[in-house]
Amino acid sequence: MTVFDNVAFSMTIAKKSSAEIKMKVDSALNRMRISEYAGRYPSELSGGQQQRVAIARAIVNDPKLLLLDEPLSNLDAKLRIEMRSELKRLHQELGTTIVYVTHDQVEALTMSTRIAVFFEGILEQVSDPIELYLNPATLRVADFIGNPRINFIEGTATSVYQKGVVEVNSDLGLMVFPEDQFIEVPKLSSFPIKIGIRPEKIIINGVGNGMVIDAEVYTSQPAGSETILTLHCKTSEIMAKLLGIHRFMSDQTVKCEFSLDDINIFSSSTGKLIKRAMNKE
C-alpha cells in the first residue's frame, strides 16, 4: 500500500466516503509534514518518514486518547530528537490526551505534562516534569531521573528541637536547615540520611555566595557543549556539570559551591524524600 492507502486503511474498512477519507488523510499527512510522500511505498521512505506515517495513521480519526508505546525506540539519536519535536507540536495542535510509554527519561522530561514512574509494576511517583526532577519522591526515582546522575552523599541528621533546626553532617560539611523545610523529621534525635544534589547545581571556583567546600579533580570530560567533572571530596565521589569547555588537571584542588536550597535529603531507612529542594523558577 502507498502512504495514502496506509493512513486511510481504518477509514476504508469503516466504509467512510471517499471525500471524507481524502480530507482526513490529507490533514493527517499535512500535520506530520509528509504530504509529498502520499504516493510512495514504505520501502521508499526513511525510518523517520515511516514513523511519521504510523503516527498519521493513528491520528487520522481524531482520537480522544492516543496510546504510544516507545514509538521512537528504533530511531537513531538525530531522528529521535526530530520526532520528539514533532510529537510535542502535534500534542499542542490536537489537544489529544497522549499516554506515552518510554524507558528514555529525556523523552519523558521534554515531552510530557505529567510523568508516572513505575518500578517493577509499582507506581512510585506522579508529578509534572520539573517537580519530578527537582524533588524525586524516593531514592530510586532520584537515581533514575537525570543525566549525569544525581549525587548521593551519606550523612547524619540531628534534630535540635530547642532551636527548631535540623543539622546535617556529611562530607559536604555541616548544614543547618529550619525544621519546617522538612516534610517529616524522624522522632529519633539522630538518624542516617542521604543528601541528593544535581551535578549542574555545583559551581566550580565561583564567587562564594553559597556553601563552599574543597574537592580534588579525579577526571575531567570536556564534551563541547558541556564539561563533566568527577570530584573527590573526603570519602565521597561527586559529579559536577559545567556549560561549555573547561580544562582541569587531575588531582587539581577546586572550590565547589552550592546552595542549600538545591539540596534534597532522603531518609536512609525508608528511601523517601524528607527535605525538598526549592523551585526558584
TrEMBL record:
ATP-binding recorded as keyword: yes
Gene Ontology molecular function terms on file: ATP binding; ATP hydrolysis activity
Ranges of residues in domain ABC transporter: 2-145
GO cellular component entries: ATP-binding cassette (ABC) transporter complex, substrate-binding subunit-containing
Transmembrane spans: none
Listed Pfam families: ABC_tran
Alphabetized InterPro entries for the sequence: ABC_transporter-like_ATP-bd, ABC_transporter-like_CS, ABC_transpr_MalK/UgpC-like, Mo/tungstate-bd_C_term_dom, NA-bd_OB-fold, P-loop_NTPase
Keywords: ATP-binding, Nucleotide-binding
PANTHER family, per the entry: MALTODEXTRIN IMPORT ATP-BINDING PROTEIN MSMX, OSMOPROTECTIVE COMPOUNDS UPTAKE ATP-BINDING PROTEIN GGTA
Protein name from the UniProt record: sn-glycerol-3-phosphate import ATP-binding protein UgpC
Organism: bioreactor metagenome
